[in-house]
Amino acid sequence: MKTTHLLYTSAFLTMTPLTVFPQGNQSRPNLVFIMADQFRGDALGCMQKEPVQTPNLDKLAEEGILFTEAISSYPVSSPARAMLMTGMYPTANGVTGNCNSDNTPYRVELSAEAICWSDVLKQAGYSTAYIGKWHLDAPHPPYIDTYNNRGKVAWNEWCSPERRHGFDQRIAYGTYDNHLKPMYWDTEAAREDFYYVDQWGPSYEADRAIEFIRKESSQSDQPFALVVSMNPPHTGYELVPDSFKQRYAHIDVEALASQKPYIPAKGTPEGDYFRTHIRNYYACITGVDENVGRIIRTLKECGVFDNTLIIFSSDHGICMGGHGIEGKNVFYEESMRIPMICCWKNKLHPQQTDLPVAFADLCPTMLSLMGMKDQIPSTVQSYDWSQHFLQEKIHTPQETIQPYYYCVPSDPTSGKRGIRTSRYTYVVAFEKGKKTQTWLYDRKNDPDQLHNLASRKPSLCDSLNQKLLLWLEQTHDPFSSYLKP
To answer: Do 97 and 109 form a contact (C-beta atoms < 8 A)?
Structure first.
């Protein structure tokens, strides 16, 4: 794995220089990229699968493209975010796990030398800003004095100027889950100069985003690119304003659990986890929705909505006790499936589609849509779906596969690799380079993924194994050698 990482790092230094476009070229679209953390793909009102209220996102979906089969290939925070920024898969970009002190010795962080889509936009003359959660820097001693750095594992770290990948303005933090009193570093702040805010995180971040949009749209002809990265509905579910909690006080959680066969019974730890937290999870989502709505309304009020590519998504989902798992970082749909809405008035045709776009694919796809296909870094490995996005009626290729990853930073010979097709989820586990377990789910006949068919479908496993092997070979993943007979 280290060899592969070094191979791709060397490629950064030999790339074709990026074209620099003149400032003031407003023919180029603006970009507003909004993401939440741990937002399940079905947890949108317009999906009509969960009793959650998202009127603003539903409206955005009506005005744009709603991707009903979007996924996260490595459903955990730092790896998903690194794939988004670079379009490279974990063994290539080096972010093989979460950025925390346990993984710092294995150099798990976004490389300062990586070329991200934000670097491309900066060199193309964009005014750029990042607001909210980043989680791509390795904590190092002396650790920042925040609550989540005082335990056995340190999580939070400042992003130094040379590691900001083209973002001029920042109001951001590494990772920090006190949503009702979040902390931030501003653009010019030194490592020790963070501050706290007595305001719910998404509301504060929407305030700052609105300020940025108003300033840029009134004072500059320069196109802008803005990322707003909200932490809810990440854990800390109860840390949400009461006004949003009240909207879900009526939900019968037992009836809701009975509709989901993958939720364990009441009285089990994971079954009770779902029943305890699901109302507040939905409350967080509705709070995120309200603040997304505020940002969209500002774009319209400032007259820049029509020339702005707007994307809403999430780094991954969450099992919430389903399948006996409280968290994510697993191949079940509740973890892998994410919301994705793309809107660009008069450019993208409003529709719903089952095009299987991955979070990582947004890197090359955004650049192509924004007129910079030729500037996509040569290191990008993920799909450019831009031509599909532009279709009046999107046609989904039948044979498309998307990868699934689980890595062990301390042991690059162990982990999981898999593929997700339009029908099947196929995953193989390895320990010390040896195959130890296989999972096969037929999501058409078993949408809740209750039955592992691997032992009953050896021929199908062999076929999918060949597809997985080809994928790993094409992406220079060292696990390819472990799959060969």
So the answer is: no
Strand partners, 435: 430
Question: How far is Cα 476 from Cα 142, in angstroms, rounded to an integer?
Answer: 36
- How far apart CA 185 and CA 174 sit, in angstroms, is 9
Question: For 54-112, what is each residue's pLDDT tens digit?
Answer: 999 999 999 999 999 999 999 999 999 999 999 999 999 999 999 999 999 999 999 99
For the purposes of burial, counting CB atoms within 10 Å of the CB of 22, is it exposed (0-12), middle (13-18) or buried (19 or more)? Answer: exposed
Helices (H), 29-137: 55-63, 77-86, 90-93, 117-123
- Read off the tokens for 298: 């500002």
Mutual orientation of helices 201-219 and 269-301 as an angle, nearest 10°? Answer: 20
**In this structure, are residues 439 and 331 in contact, taking their beta carbons and an 8 Å threshold?**
yes
- What is the amino acid identity at position 77? S
With vertex at residue 9, the alpha carbon angle to CA 5 and CA 14, rounded to the nearest 5 degrees, is: 145
Choose among 233, 218, 212, 215: nearest CA to 33: 212
**Burial class of residue 256 in the structure, from the number of CB atoms within 10 Å of its CB (0-12 exposed, 13-18 middle, 19+ buried):** middle
Q: What is the pLDDT of residues 216-258, one digit of tens each?
A: 999 878 999 999 999 999 999 999 999 999 999 999 999 999 9
Taking Cα atoms as reference points, which of 136, 129, 156, 40 lies closest to residue 88? 136
pLDDT in tens, 141-164: 999 999 999 999 999 999 999 999
Who's near 215: CB < 8 A, 6+ residues apart?
A: none
**Is this prediction's pTM over 0.90?**
yes
| Beta-sheet strands, E only, within 200-264 | 224-229
Structural tokens at position 176? 């920090």
CB proximity list for 72: less than 8 A, separation 6 or greater? 80, 314, 315, 316, 317, 335, 336, 337, 338, 358, 359
Strands (DSSP E) contained in 140-250 are 169-173, 183-186, 195-196, 224-229
Cα–Cα distance, 127 to 19 (Å, whole number): 16
H or E segment and range at residue 451: none
Residue 288: how many other CB atoms lie within 10 Å: 30
- Long-range contacts of range 145-149, CB-CB < 8 Å, 24 or more positions apart? 146/176, 146/183, 146/194, 147/178, 148/175, 148/176, 148/177
The amino acid at 311: I
Structure-token pair, residue 438? 């296989």
